[in-house]
Amino acid sequence: MKPNETHTTTVRILYFARLRESLGKGEEELVLPDGVATVGALADFLRQRGDAWASELGAGKAVRVAVNQDMASPDTEIKGGEEIAFFPPVTGG
Amino acid sequence: MPVRVQTEDFDVGAEIARLREGNPKVGAVASFVGIVRDLNDGDAVATLTLEHYPGMTEKSLEDIVAQAQQRWDIYDALVVHRVGTLQPLDQIVLVVVTSAHRGESFRACEFLMDYLKTRAPFWKKEVTPQGSRWVEARASDDTAADRWS
Protein backbone atom coordinates (compact mmCIF):
# COMPACT_ATOMS: atom_id res chain seq x y z
CA MET A 1 0.00 0.00 0.00
CA LYS A 2 1.24 3.51 -0.78
CA PRO A 3 1.86 5.69 2.27
CA ASN A 4 -1.00 8.08 1.48
CA GLU A 5 -3.57 5.34 0.90
CA THR A 6 -6.03 4.76 3.67
CA HIS A 7 -7.39 1.30 4.19
CA THR A 8 -10.20 1.11 6.71
CA THR A 9 -10.32 -2.33 8.19
CA THR A 10 -11.69 -1.35 11.57
CA VAL A 11 -14.99 -2.81 12.72
CA ARG A 12 -17.13 -1.85 15.70
CA ILE A 13 -18.19 -4.94 17.64
CA LEU A 14 -21.10 -4.92 20.09
CA TYR A 15 -21.98 -7.55 22.69
CA PHE A 16 -25.38 -7.85 24.34
CA ALA A 17 -27.05 -9.50 27.34
CA ARG A 18 -25.27 -12.60 28.69
CA LEU A 19 -22.38 -12.12 26.25
CA ARG A 20 -21.78 -8.55 27.40
CA GLU A 21 -21.60 -9.69 31.02
CA SER A 22 -19.47 -12.79 30.46
CA LEU A 23 -17.02 -11.05 28.14
CA GLY A 24 -16.82 -7.99 30.36
CA LYS A 25 -17.43 -5.47 27.60
CA GLY A 26 -20.31 -4.05 25.60
CA GLU A 27 -18.33 -2.87 22.62
CA GLU A 28 -14.89 -2.56 21.09
CA GLU A 29 -13.14 -1.32 17.97
CA LEU A 30 -11.06 -3.96 16.24
CA VAL A 31 -8.69 -3.77 13.29
CA LEU A 32 -9.58 -6.82 11.24
CA PRO A 33 -6.65 -9.25 11.33
CA ASP A 34 -5.30 -10.54 8.00
CA GLY A 35 -7.47 -13.29 6.63
CA VAL A 36 -10.58 -12.35 8.57
CA ALA A 37 -13.17 -11.65 5.88
CA THR A 38 -16.31 -13.34 7.22
CA VAL A 39 -18.39 -13.38 10.39
CA GLY A 40 -17.30 -16.97 11.03
CA ALA A 41 -13.62 -16.08 10.74
CA LEU A 42 -14.12 -13.15 13.12
CA ALA A 43 -15.76 -15.47 15.67
CA ASP A 44 -12.80 -17.89 15.29
CA PHE A 45 -10.39 -15.02 15.92
CA LEU A 46 -12.29 -13.84 19.02
CA ARG A 47 -12.41 -17.40 20.41
CA GLN A 48 -8.62 -17.48 20.37
CA ARG A 49 -8.64 -14.90 23.19
CA GLY A 50 -9.46 -17.87 25.42
CA ASP A 51 -11.38 -18.08 28.70
CA ALA A 52 -14.89 -16.60 28.44
CA TRP A 53 -14.33 -15.84 24.74
CA ALA A 54 -13.65 -19.48 23.98
CA SER A 55 -16.62 -20.73 26.00
CA GLU A 56 -19.22 -18.08 25.12
CA LEU A 57 -18.47 -18.17 21.40
CA GLY A 58 -17.61 -21.88 21.37
CA ALA A 59 -19.36 -24.93 20.01
CA GLY A 60 -22.71 -25.66 21.57
CA LYS A 61 -23.41 -22.04 22.45
CA ALA A 62 -26.30 -20.46 20.59
CA VAL A 63 -24.96 -17.10 19.43
CA ARG A 64 -26.60 -14.82 16.90
CA VAL A 65 -24.70 -12.26 14.81
CA ALA A 66 -25.92 -9.11 13.07
CA VAL A 67 -23.91 -7.08 10.56
CA ASN A 68 -24.99 -3.45 10.21
CA GLN A 69 -28.14 -4.39 12.15
CA ASP A 70 -29.21 -7.17 9.79
CA MET A 71 -29.08 -10.80 10.89
CA ALA A 72 -26.00 -12.50 9.48
CA SER A 73 -24.58 -16.01 9.09
CA PRO A 74 -21.01 -17.37 9.46
CA ASP A 75 -20.35 -16.84 5.75
CA THR A 76 -21.52 -13.20 5.72
CA GLU A 77 -18.62 -11.15 4.37
CA ILE A 78 -17.04 -8.28 6.29
CA LYS A 79 -14.42 -5.92 4.95
CA GLY A 80 -14.12 -3.13 7.50
CA GLY A 81 -16.38 -0.27 8.57
CA GLU A 82 -19.21 -2.54 9.71
CA GLU A 83 -21.06 -2.63 13.02
CA ILE A 84 -21.08 -6.28 14.07
CA ALA A 85 -23.15 -7.48 17.03
CA PHE A 86 -22.95 -10.78 18.90
CA PHE A 87 -25.88 -11.78 21.13
CA PRO A 88 -27.81 -14.75 22.55
CA PRO A 89 -31.15 -15.89 21.06
CA VAL A 90 -33.73 -13.19 21.75
CA THR A 91 -36.24 -13.40 24.61
CA GLY A 92 -38.49 -10.34 24.36
CA GLY A 93 -42.24 -10.03 24.37
CA MET B 1 -44.66 5.83 14.46
CA PRO B 2 -45.96 2.24 14.40
CA VAL B 3 -43.13 1.14 16.71
CA ARG B 4 -41.90 2.43 20.08
CA VAL B 5 -39.32 1.16 22.56
CA GLN B 6 -39.60 2.98 25.89
CA THR B 7 -39.04 2.69 29.63
CA GLU B 8 -42.38 4.33 30.52
CA ASP B 9 -45.62 2.43 30.96
CA PHE B 10 -48.38 2.73 28.31
CA ASP B 11 -52.13 3.33 28.46
CA VAL B 12 -53.83 0.61 26.39
CA GLY B 13 -57.10 2.53 25.96
CA ALA B 14 -55.36 5.72 24.87
CA GLU B 15 -53.13 3.83 22.40
CA ILE B 16 -56.13 2.08 20.81
CA ALA B 17 -58.10 5.33 20.62
CA ARG B 18 -55.16 7.09 18.91
CA LEU B 19 -54.60 4.27 16.40
CA ARG B 20 -58.18 4.25 15.10
CA GLU B 21 -58.86 7.97 15.55
CA GLY B 22 -60.79 9.46 12.64
CA ASN B 23 -60.87 6.29 10.54
CA PRO B 24 -64.52 5.23 10.03
CA LYS B 25 -63.40 2.24 7.94
CA VAL B 26 -62.08 0.46 11.04
CA GLY B 27 -64.55 -2.22 12.12
CA ALA B 28 -62.20 -4.30 14.26
CA VAL B 29 -59.37 -3.73 16.71
CA ALA B 30 -57.32 -6.62 18.12
CA SER B 31 -54.81 -6.03 20.88
CA PHE B 32 -52.38 -8.06 22.94
CA VAL B 33 -50.77 -7.01 26.23
CA GLY B 34 -47.83 -8.95 27.68
CA ILE B 35 -47.44 -8.74 31.46
CA VAL B 36 -44.65 -9.66 33.93
CA ARG B 37 -45.58 -12.77 35.94
CA ASP B 38 -44.33 -13.54 39.44
CA LEU B 39 -43.28 -17.07 38.46
CA ASN B 40 -41.01 -18.45 35.72
CA ASP B 41 -39.63 -22.00 35.40
CA GLY B 42 -40.82 -22.76 38.92
CA ASP B 43 -39.05 -19.84 40.61
CA ALA B 44 -40.48 -16.65 42.10
CA VAL B 45 -39.58 -13.61 40.01
CA ALA B 46 -38.86 -10.38 41.91
CA THR B 47 -37.86 -8.19 38.95
CA LEU B 48 -37.39 -8.52 35.22
CA THR B 49 -34.90 -6.35 33.34
CA LEU B 50 -35.19 -5.96 29.58
CA GLU B 51 -32.23 -5.03 27.41
CA HIS B 52 -32.39 -4.15 23.70
CA TYR B 53 -30.16 -3.20 20.76
CA PRO B 54 -30.98 0.47 20.09
CA GLY B 55 -31.42 0.94 16.35
CA MET B 56 -31.68 -2.68 15.32
CA THR B 57 -34.60 -3.39 17.66
CA GLU B 58 -36.70 -0.58 16.18
CA LYS B 59 -35.66 -1.55 12.65
CA SER B 60 -36.59 -5.16 13.22
CA LEU B 61 -39.99 -4.25 14.72
CA GLU B 62 -40.71 -1.98 11.75
CA ASP B 63 -39.83 -4.83 9.41
CA ILE B 64 -42.21 -7.18 11.24
CA VAL B 65 -45.02 -4.60 11.03
CA ALA B 66 -44.34 -4.19 7.28
CA GLN B 67 -44.61 -7.95 6.84
CA ALA B 68 -47.99 -7.97 8.63
CA GLN B 69 -49.16 -5.12 6.39
CA GLN B 70 -48.24 -7.18 3.33
CA ARG B 71 -49.81 -10.42 4.52
CA TRP B 72 -53.17 -9.13 5.76
CA ASP B 73 -55.65 -6.48 4.79
CA ILE B 74 -55.15 -4.29 7.85
CA TYR B 75 -55.23 -0.52 8.32
CA ASP B 76 -52.73 0.20 11.07
CA ALA B 77 -50.52 -1.63 13.52
CA LEU B 78 -48.75 -0.46 16.65
CA VAL B 79 -46.04 -2.13 18.72
CA VAL B 80 -44.92 -0.65 22.05
CA HIS B 81 -42.23 -2.55 23.97
CA ARG B 82 -40.82 -1.52 27.33
CA VAL B 83 -37.19 -1.86 28.42
CA GLY B 84 -35.50 -1.40 31.79
CA THR B 85 -36.42 -2.99 35.10
CA LEU B 86 -40.02 -4.15 35.59
CA GLN B 87 -41.90 -5.96 38.35
CA PRO B 88 -44.68 -8.56 38.39
CA LEU B 89 -48.01 -7.04 37.26
CA ASP B 90 -46.20 -4.50 35.04
CA GLN B 91 -47.08 -4.31 31.35
CA ILE B 92 -44.19 -5.26 29.01
CA VAL B 93 -45.50 -5.16 25.47
CA LEU B 94 -48.51 -3.93 23.52
CA VAL B 95 -49.58 -4.88 19.99
CA VAL B 96 -52.65 -3.26 18.40
CA VAL B 97 -54.00 -3.92 14.90
CA THR B 98 -56.97 -2.31 13.15
CA SER B 99 -58.88 -3.69 10.17
CA ALA B 100 -62.33 -3.77 8.59
CA HIS B 101 -63.14 -7.26 9.90
CA ARG B 102 -61.93 -9.24 12.89
CA GLY B 103 -60.13 -12.08 11.13
CA GLU B 104 -57.32 -9.92 9.75
CA SER B 105 -56.77 -8.13 13.06
CA PHE B 106 -56.69 -11.34 15.11
CA ARG B 107 -54.26 -13.08 12.80
CA ALA B 108 -51.96 -10.09 12.28
CA CYS B 109 -51.83 -9.46 16.04
CA GLU B 110 -50.78 -13.04 16.78
CA PHE B 111 -48.27 -13.02 13.92
CA LEU B 112 -46.72 -9.78 15.23
CA MET B 113 -46.26 -11.26 18.71
CA ASP B 114 -44.87 -14.58 17.41
CA TYR B 115 -42.35 -12.80 15.17
CA LEU B 116 -41.46 -10.21 17.80
CA LYS B 117 -40.64 -12.95 20.32
CA THR B 118 -38.30 -14.79 17.97
CA ARG B 119 -36.78 -12.00 15.87
CA ALA B 120 -36.66 -8.66 17.69
CA PRO B 121 -33.47 -8.13 19.73
CA PHE B 122 -34.68 -7.99 23.33
CA TRP B 123 -33.26 -9.99 26.23
CA LYS B 124 -34.76 -10.63 29.66
CA LYS B 125 -32.87 -11.04 32.89
CA GLU B 126 -34.84 -12.04 35.97
CA VAL B 127 -34.06 -11.84 39.67
CA THR B 128 -35.21 -14.88 41.67
CA PRO B 129 -34.40 -16.10 45.23
CA GLN B 130 -31.57 -18.11 43.59
CA GLY B 131 -30.01 -14.94 42.17
CA SER B 132 -30.25 -13.29 38.78
CA ARG B 133 -30.30 -15.21 35.51
CA TRP B 134 -30.77 -14.58 31.81
CA VAL B 135 -33.99 -16.05 30.47
CA GLU B 136 -33.36 -18.80 27.91
CA ALA B 137 -35.10 -18.77 24.52
CA ARG B 138 -37.93 -21.32 24.26
CA ALA B 139 -38.33 -23.85 21.46
CA SER B 140 -42.11 -23.40 21.72
CA ASP B 141 -41.69 -19.77 20.60
CA ASP B 142 -39.83 -20.91 17.47
CA THR B 143 -42.60 -23.44 16.80
CA ALA B 144 -45.23 -20.70 17.14
CA ALA B 145 -43.36 -18.43 14.71
CA ASP B 146 -42.82 -21.26 12.21
CA ARG B 147 -46.59 -21.62 11.78
CA TRP B 148 -46.58 -18.43 9.72
CA SER B 149 -43.89 -19.41 7.22
Give the mean pLDDT of chain B.
97
Which value, in Å, is the CA radius of gyration of chain A?
14 Å
* General form of chain B: globular
How would the global form of chain A be characterised? globular
The secondary-structure class of chain A comes to: alpha+beta
Largest sheet of chain A: 5 strands, mixed
Radius of gyration of chain B: 16 Å
Q: What is the share of helical residues of chain B?
A: 25-40%
Residues in helix, % of chain A: 10-25%
**Poorly predicted segments of chain B:** none
Low-pLDDT regions of chain A: none
Would you write up a description of this structure?
The complex is a heterodimer of chains A (93) and B (149). Chain A is α+β, with helices and mostly antiparallel strands. Chain A contains three helices and five strands. In chain A, strand 3 and strand 4 form a beta hairpin. Helices cover 24% and strands 25% of the residues of chain A. Helices cover 34% and strands 36% of the residues of chain B. Chain B is built from four helices and ten strands, in the order E-H-E-E-E-E-H-E-E-E-H-E-E-H. Chain B has helices at residues 12-20, 56-71, 102-119, 139-146; strands spanning 3-6, 28-35, 39-40, 43-44, 47-52, 74-82, 84-86, 91-99, 122-128, 131-134. The mean pLDDT of chain B is 97.
